[in-house]
Amino acid sequence: MAMQRFVIEGGKKLAGTVRISGAKNSALPIIAASILTDKKVVLENVPDLIDVRTMIELISYLGAKVDFRKNTLTIHAPHIKRIDAPYDIVRRMRASYYVLGALVAREKKAHVSFPGGCAIGPRPIDLHIKGLEMIGTTVDIADGYINARARALRGREVNIQGPKGTSVGATINVMIAATRARGVTKIAPAACEPEVVDVANFLNAMGCSVAGHGTHTIIVHGRSSMSGVLYRIIPDRIEAGTFVVTAAMNRGDVTLEHCRPDHLKSVLDVLKETGATFTIGHDTLRIQGAKAMKPVNIFVAPYPGFPTDMQSQFMAFLSIVPGTSTIKETIFENRFMQAVELMRMGARITIEGDTAVIHGVRRLSGAILMASDLRASAALVLAGLVAKGRTVVRRIYHLDRGYEQFEQKLRSLGAHIKRQSE
């Protein structure tokens, strides 16, 4: 497939309504966890993304029968035919590691390649391995593969605290595996992101017993079997946040439908400081950008703090907010890679260790830009939408991993953006 790019004519006012898709970071582990049962699982509100297609390819390879159409995914895995997740599939997506917990739970063994993904600094899998070992899994690493075996999984207290706090991925992987452990597993401190809660709710809908999700202590009572289920994935808070920032940055008037405003509190709190106003409904959110915008200081932190996945988009926004703003990134190294590209558009940004200092400029200018990772790609598109003239964003395959029909949704709001082959 030919490499693709976005061509954007900046300066168009954005207004209208946009529907938010299902959460990628919920869908991926839930698809993996669907192989825990030999009964049929039907998932609704599944976003049609490259990463989702990769996870479907992986569970199909393991033996699941899969049908995906119109955001509804049917999975039936009466038998697991393979316990290996090959490098050729896993290298395309980091979240492939979720089959590790599911395979260990169902088959008591797994042979999973080390994962790939975005180039935003080291994201070690050691906390996943540590957590699985604590409940009775023997793990050795050879030739780039994680080899896991368990005679019997046994519930116990699991501490997966890392140097930068607890891990969302490790919390989910251990939670999935613990559903088949004998006895009670206590994960503490556990991550409490909405996506962790969604996976726990899915597991409970299948007949598992998970409690405490949404807090820093998750309790899992092991079960020997699970039922089929019809389950709906939560809306994507990062996609919603991206559109909220787009509207504020553009001084537009945009309403999000099918979203969860309660998952966006930290993002909305920062936007309120900039002067933006919003109207919150049950599953709708209307955002109106301010004519006079104010600078802010952002501190990235695990949920319910400000999400690292929104940091890039806010950097683009703050680059045109008068005054000096700062962003302190505490979770991932190398996550300021969009800064260099924004500076090519005229942004004034200096990086001092884990802190970006942004001096707002009156206007950005269109440029040819190179996307480095998923959220940086979104930031460059947002910058292009407000820049003077024409912006070209190359290597948008990163963006297609996490945003469903992004340019169509932007066009429906009045943006001039088109996709081209290189």
Features:
422 residues, alpha+beta, UDP-n-acetylglucosamine1-carboxyvinyl-transferase, Chain, 4-stranded mixed sheet, 14 helices, globular
Could you characterize what this model shows?
This protein starts with a strand and ends with a strand. The chain has a 4-stranded mixed sheet with strand order 24-25-1-26, covered by helices on one side. The protein has a 4-stranded mixed sheet with strand order 2-17-19-18. Strands 4-5-3-16 form a 4-stranded mixed sheet, with helices on one face. The longest helix has 13 residues, at 50-62. Strand 8 (138-142) and strand 9 form a beta hairpin. By secondary structure, it is of the alpha+beta class. The protein folds into 2 domains: 4-21 and 235-421, Alpha-beta prism (UDP-n-acetylglucosamine1-carboxyvinyl-transferase, Chain), CATH 3.65.10; 24-232, Alpha-beta prism (UDP-n-acetylglucosamine1-carboxyvinyl-transferase, Chain). It has helices spanning 24-33, 50-62, 87-90, 98-107, 126-134, 168-178, 194-205, 237-249, 265-274, 311-318, 338-343, 374-386, 397-400, 406-412; strands at 4-9, 15-19, 40-44, 65-69, 72-76, 84-85, 109-113, 138-142, 145-149, 157-158, 161-162, 165-166, 184-187, 209-211, 218-221, 229-232, 253-257, 277-280, 284-288, 297-299, 324-328, 348-352, 355-359, 368-370, 390-394, 416-421. The protein has 14 helices and 26 strands.
